[in-house]
Every structure is written in structure tokens, then in C-alpha cells.
Amino acid sequence: MNLIPPIKAAPSCADDTDPTSLTVFQARSSILDTITPISDRQRLFLRDALGRVIAEEIISPLNVPGHTNSAMDGYALAGDELPEAASQEYRIAGTAYAGAPYEGGCASGECVRIMTGAPMPTGTDTVVMQEHARVVGEERVLLSPGQKKGRNVRQAGEDIPEGGRVLERGRQLTAADLGILSSLGIGEVAVYRRPRVAFFSTGDELRSIGEPLGKGEVYDSNRYSLYGMLKRLDLEILDLGVVRDKPEALREAFASAAGMADLVITSGGVSVGEADYVKATLEELGRIRFWKIAMKPGRPLAYGNLGKALFFGLPGNPVAVMVTFLQFVEPAIRYLATGRVWKPLVIRARALTSMRKRPGRFEFQRGILSLSADGELSVTDTGKQGSGILTSMSRANCFILLDEQNAGVSEGDLVDVQPFEPFTLREGPRAEGRGPRD
Ligand code: AMP
Ligand code: MG
User: Fold this and answer.
1) Which of 199, 202, 206, 270 to mutate to test the pocket of ligand 1 (most atoms within 8 A of CB)?
2) C-alpha angle 220/222/224, rounded to 5°?
3) Is the CATH number 3.30.1240.10 carried by domain 69-154?
4) Ligand 1: which of 202, 211, 218, 312 to mutate, judged by most atoms within 8 Å of the beta carbon?
5) CATH level 3 topology of 24-38+194-338
6) What is the pTM of this model?
7) Which of 57, 181, 203, 362 has a CA between 20 and 30 Å from the CA of residue 14?
8) What's the pLDDT tens digit per position in 191-250?
């Protein structure tokens, strides 16, 4: 299926329906269609593998737990010997510790004092917790009635059976995964190489921090917000600075970026203005797959290949850079790194304000999601939604997703929202003397 419409003359910014644009959904899937996930591997010690993508399937070489053992401190005995109607006295045959199992037997009328994690002694299958026991003399204990056979015992292999599949390939290793691998005695794992991502800003008007600003000049902020978004992911990041709006300078930067990275990101220069050379340079040196998406902000986004590298020419406006990164580049990087399709969480929340919108484009409004006293999620927009208003991203904790068909939101409507990562409902000062649940 070819999702890519022919590239025609530039649309006017006034239309909201442009037949030459891809929908957000089409753009995302056509990007994934062109990506071959990284297959180079390396072996790492367990601690170094935290957050990395595992390149092998882990089959358990043993049972976890290895032995049937007690889940409590108490007394182990045969379930058939439990007291029935009244408390009953037993002889304590010995003591079982987690590190020093009890090797003797347990006859009728006997029990074994047992600690949490100690293997169940031969002849026992039940543990009475010590809160239901009273020592009545040397080697004698009184156990209460009302106990059940098999209680307070962890079966061998109940967490992980020997031969069971524990972790699938393509998973990003979490703290719990490191714990599991170490419980299996596995000290090294194969992981995929991290993606290498190179990025640079384009624009004659851009200045670096520390330089004075002339008329019409702005400080380059996109490289910093891009750095921040890339840094959250597990990547090798290559910051290639600012490149001027000159075809030769862009050609040179494109070629060197493509030679060192799996994925190249630029910002600016993808519209149809006089100084917008990014698209033309991509067409000349690589292959352009599409360059317009029916969305707001972020309509011009040039996607294609530059040699072996994937190429994203993001728009120049600071909000558009962040929105297009989060909606297209991040899913692409995650797929490149893991071979798995990543779907961010989308939830429904009640709109506390109305929002104007015309059908045609998908809008990513910046929102503030909060939890009301009655436990309902509600959302407001952050105010001005212009693509240069970067404070809207900094104040927001979510995107409000208004799809192509949406023709505006009334106060009280339910809307889809995509929380930012890592998500926090609200940040505020700590109220004196109150705990986190108050
Ligand atoms: P462009 O797409 O290159 O026409 O840029 C669109 C707008 O974004 C212009 O107002 C640029 O000055 C601004 N812009 C482009 N790149 C950056 C950047 N790296 N940092 C801040 N603003 C930028
Ligand atoms: Mg520019």
C-alpha cells in the first residue's frame, strides 16, 4: 500500500484540509515501514544493562524459588496434623533456617520451628504463623485451630519454573528485570547497540548563547529542547551545532551527519520560504518520503533517508519541534532500538474549557491534566497555542489530542489526552505538615 500522496504545489497556511498532506496516523506508519531495527549486539554485565534493550530470550535455567519454603516465621507440620476444633500441643522436633535447613523428620504430633525462606522439612506441607502459636515449655508449642492445609508455603518454581520463558527479546531492561536475572544466576546479557542520533539546527538568524543578538536574531533553543528529549532515551547523542541557510553548508552537514548516525534530526528550513533548503538538500543527497502532515503545529516535516540514516527535517518553530519529535521521532527511535512498536498512554479527561478547532488537521494542544477531588481527570489548555510559544510546553503536562474530524470542544466534553513522560499531575510547594496522601 502506498500511503504517500504526490508532492504538489505548496498549500496555503489558511487551508485546514490539504490533500497532499499525510494524516498523523499515515505518517507514523509510513515511518515505521521504512525502519530496520538495529541488530548489532554486545554483551554487558548486569548492572550496565539497565535500560538497555535485551537481544536474547531468557529461558530460566532453574526454579525460583529453588525449594518449597516457608513464607512466614512459624511452625511447619503436616496439614493432616493441624488442630481441628481446639488448640493442640506439639513437640518441636527442631529448627529450620533459610541458610540452615532442618534435615530431620517430622513425625505425628511433632512440628518444626521454621523461619521465612527456610526449605520445608520432609513430611511437612503447612506453616502455622507464630502469631497463632504459644510456646508452653521446652520443645513444646500450642497451635491454635482454624488453620488451613498448605498455607504460608511458597512452592518451588511458583515464581519462575525451570525452562520457562522469562524475558523476551526487545525489552528494555528494568530494575525488576535485573533482579530477576540475578535470581537466575545470570550475570551477563546480550543487548542491542544503542542508536546513534545526530542533530543540528539550521538558520541564518540563530545565535549561540553568549553571543550578542542582532536585529531579527534569536538564540538557538531547538538544540537544547532536542537534547533534553533525546537524553531521556537510551542513545548516543551527537550535537552538530548550527548550520547556516546555505546549500553548500547544508550539503556538507548532511553528509557528515549521515556518516556518523543511524538517525539525523534537523530543525528549521523545511517550509517553502526562500531560505528553506533542507527539503531540497534531502532530495538531492538522499530520498524524501514525505514532507507534509495534516497537523498543528508541525505541518512541514521532511522525512526520508540519507544514505543508511533515517532523516527527520523538523520545522523551526520551537513548539513544533517538540511536538513532532514526541509524535514521530520518538516512536521511530524506539522502534529502531527495540523492534517493537511503542504506544504512548492516551486517556480521557473532561475539558474544563472550550477549545476552538476546525476539522482537517490533527491538533496537539498543550494541556494541564489534573485530578479533581472526586477522582475525575480534567484538563485545561495552557492558553495561547502558537507554535512559537515554548512556555506552553513547559507549563503543560500533557497533549490534548484533537483529531482531524474534531470541530471544536465545548466545556464538559471528554477529550483524549497524552500525558508527558515522566508524568506528574501537578507540581507545587509542599503543604506544611502534610504527607503525600493528604
Ligand atoms: P523556519 O522553519 O526555518 O522558517 O523557522 C521557523 C521559525 O522558527 C522562525 O521564526 C525561526 O527563527 C524559528 N527557529 C528556527 N530554528 C530555531 C532554533 N533552533 N531555535 C529557536 N528558534 C528557531
Ligand atoms: Mg529558517
Assistant:
1) 206
2) 90
3) no
4) 218
5) Molybdenum Cofactor Biosythetic Enzyme; Chain A (3.40.980)
6) 0.90
7) 203
8) 999 999 999 999 999 999 999 999 999 999 999 999 999 999 999 999 999 999 999 999
